[in-house]
Amino acid sequence: MSTSPRLSIDVRSYGAAHSAHRHDFAQLVLPLSGALEIDIAGKGGRLGPCRAAFVEAGSSHTQTSDGPNRSLILDLDPALLEPAVGDRLIRHPFVALTPVAGKLIDYMGLMLDSRGVSADNLRLWVPLLLDALAEEPARPRSRLGTLLAAVEPDLAKPWTAETMAERACVSVSRLHALFRAELDTTPRAWLAEVRLKRACGWLARSELPIAEIAYRTGYADQSAFTRAMRRATGLTPAAYRRQSRKTRHKSP
Taking every annotated instance into account, which residue ranges of this chain make up the domain HTH araC/xylS-type (predicted)? Predict the structure, then answer.
């Protein structure tokens, strides 16, 4: 009597490190949020939104994290892996995620959170994921391009150097070096400039309340927004809005 190859998926979070363990099936650790450290057969790495890990069947490993985190854990029979894909994952257990792989992981996370996933759907999803993991990620012209594209549409989020470094999968010191090399500024100064520019645009061209603009651009409150505007322009948000409208109405 034959048995079906092992294939299961769930969402897990990790805390303090436990003793090393191993199992007779392969495993993919696919982060959804937060970050964690993983050691696979003596090789350590940090996982986050753009980096996953493959644990070979029988390989000793440990996971640990000191903050909130959620990951998809895909357990699968090694026989389900194409030889070329399996060999590559064994040689390079830490995998840089392409945008396609990231979208597939996010999709599965949403499905598991909302209504679960049938065995049939999981069997259809896994080959797509493995194909995406086998792709070589395109090397961006700017090391910061992906990070900036994530931050700019989401300015309301309380971004810090630490959270930006985590999103870019680099250390905080490396993040500062990249900002200095590519933009000749610091992460904090760049973020302040982007927030202020976005806020000024909304003041000039929208009817949004000033408090709402402050919230959407990530200021702690309207007072913090007012202080930032005064430092940068010498005007309060309300005065800047009035001046912008006068200028616009005078234009031919």
Answer: 145-243
